[in-house]
Specification:
mainly alpha; single chain; about 130 residues; two-stranded antiparallel ribbon
Length: about 130
């Protein structure tokens, strides 16, 4: 019977979610670039179709949720780090019990932001295809 360590499963999950985030970020930026191909300028006025405006708002929303996800996660881990640092008097070699540091629901907000950025990117491309 093949066996796998829980840490290997965790690493695979972390790598996969990180890769999805990277791809979604990149294709949102590409989507914004594609929109500018279709923008018309007449008499120094930008003319942008409503579907394109919708797409750009969705792509920008996706990038906003991407930034919020990593900002939230950074703040959470900064707080956890400070708590551990104080508790163990700056002993960087201290071994910590994850269950005492991490609240079980801390990652829910991260997953909400992660899911929303994917949904917004997909919707942005749907609006772009409708155009």
């Amino acid at each position: 019977m093949a066996k796998i360590k829980i840490s290997d499963l965790r690493d695979t999950y972390y790598n996969a979610s990180s890769t999805v985030s990277d791809i979604v970020r990149q294709i949102s930026i590409v989507g914004i670039g594609v929109i500018w191909i279709f923008v018309e300028v007449i008499n120094d006025t930008l003319l942008i179709d409503k579907c394109l405006v919708c797409s750009i708002v969705l792509f920008l929303g996706s990038l906003l949720f991407d930034a919020l996800q990593y900002t939230y996660k950074t703040i959470v881990f900064a707080c956890i780090f400070r708590k551990a640092e104080k508790e163990f008097d700056n002993n960087e070699d201290a071994v910590l019990d994850k269950s005492t540091l991490l609240h079980p629901g801390w990652n829910i907000v991260t997953w909400i932001f992660w899911t929303l950025k994917i949904i917004l990117t997909i919707c942005g491309y749907i609006a772009l295809l409708i155009y």
